[in-house]
Amino acid sequence: MLRGLAWAAAQGHGALWARGSGSLAGVLTHVVDLRSDTVTKPGPAMRHAMAEAVVGDDDYGEDPTVRELQAKAAELLGVERTLFVPTNTMANLISGVHSHPLPDLPHGTLDLAELERLIIRGLGSPYHPVCELICLENTHSSSGGRVLPIKYLRQVHLLARSYGVRVHLDGARLMNAAVALRVPPARIVEHCDSVSLCFSKGLGAPVGALVGGPKDFIEDAWRLRKALGGGMRQAGVLAAAALVGLADTEEVLLRDHQNAQRFAKGLQELASPVCSVDTPVETNMVMVRVDGLPPEELCRRLQAVSADEVAQTGHAVHVLLFPWTKRSVRAVWHRDVSVQDTELALRKWAFVLRQLGP
């Protein structure tokens, strides 16, 4: 369903972009892209690092920039080894297994009693699969970027160990979680057996992720990366971008979190019956509940620019975002959305809500 909603929104975005890419009544249009933190563009420092990267054949283990990234990431995450891979999907890929999704609690956590029940169910039973791996996501995207508490991670890991089960952390936005908790990322990862980290979301790199864990685990991962077509050659060009993204993580992500919180507070102050923020904003995501019209319609109105908008606000603003569910939209802040962009997005939202009436 979500893919269908996103596709529909993308079609509307393309048409509106073409129509409003110039100016309206002499006012230049301004685009605030809140669809995802994957839409960032490499800045000058990142592009320079990519252009100047020292490279070699990483498939032979000879790329010095990739080796530097992997070593720095291993130290940062507190793991023995890491492996640079093209995408976080590859870093999380599990094949040849039976998966059993559990419903999320409001904070993005799992019911530990239910988790233990399912683990026990497979022990010695010829009718149920044996649980060998628990997968968690931190931050938790569907819960609006919520951060999994360290106490909870510790509880999951202790439960897993007592039954001989491993824990993998999908840490696509792990650095957001670390910044929000004000702890080194290794404090989070110490409660997991393996971890992934994405460089092309909040860290702003164009491509790349890594998987981390024990030495023998990473040796197996290297073989699987090759089998999946992820053996890259002069990958230092990409690793250089990831290194730049890591260098300014705390400053950039903290600003993203503050902008998201500023927006959520402003939207709540509008006191509209159409849009509300019911989920605490802990990182760079704001989940907006939509009542009274389809989320697709709200997205269309936020993308559109009219003469009335310019007359009333003095600005022509496209706010780009996707529907998330049938009754919500998700807005995501990133390094390409400034304080000014956040204010413009809030003004545009206020204009649209006024147009919708009381």
TrEMBL record:
The protein's name: Putative low-specificity L-threonine aldolase 2
Organism this protein belongs to: Camelus dromedarius
Modified residues (N6-(pyridoxal phosphate)lysine): 201
Matching NCBIfam families: GntG_guanitoxin
Family, per entry: Belongs to the threonine aldolase family.
InterPro entries in UniProt: ArAA_b-elim_lyase/Thr_aldolase, Low_specificity_L-TA-like, PyrdxlP-dep_Trfase, PyrdxlP-dep_Trfase_major, PyrdxlP-dep_Trfase_small
Swiss-Prot/TrEMBL cofactor(s): pyridoxal 5'-phosphate
Domain Aromatic amino acid beta-eliminating lyase/threonine aldolase as annotated: residue spans: 94-291
Keyword Lyase in annotation: yes
MF terms in GO: L-allo-threonine aldolase activity
A Gene Ontology BP annotation from the UniProt entry: glycine biosynthetic process
